[in-house]
Amino acid sequence: xxxxxxxxxxxxxxxxxxxxxxxxxxxxxxxxxxxxxxxxxxxxxxxxxxxxxxxxxxxxxxxxxxxxxxxxxxxxxxxxxxxxxxxxxxxxxxxxxxxxxxxxxxxxxxxxxxxxxxxxxxxxxxxxxxxxxxxxxxxxxxxxxxxxxxxxxxxxxxxxxxxxxxxxxxxxxxxxxxxxxxxxxxxxxx
Length: 190
Fold this sequence. Notes:
By secondary structure, the protein is of the alpha+beta class. Helix content is 36%, strand content 18%.
């Protein structure tokens, strides 16, 4: 009987063994599936848009996780097609810390990016940050739960052009082909 449950779990994609419990706290909170009402999503999104994490890494990580939770809940609420149209609205971004949504496919093609629209349609699988980290691979690992739930990248700050650390967390869209991520950077200089 135990083997039958194991086969069933593997066939429908449930994690088995100890790896199912190996997620860190950020992973569990970013992947939470609790349903939020449309009103609650809007209230929390509005609150998020009016704040700044500044140079606080812990506040910035919390903001990125919150944006990902709200985006995931919105996808569940209105469906992926409508959600993506909604995510193109500036109401899903924040100037402070450059908080925004972006996405790549499982194969590394950029399909959505409110922070860097010039990247959409490009193969990002060979693109790395200043320190050589391949961000499309990290996004896939975050979404699949095989890497860090919240990962960091270092890119030039869009205004100061100085190195800035960004934090990102991702989840798989329902089609299991596209990955959607929330990201932002430590804003040390304004």
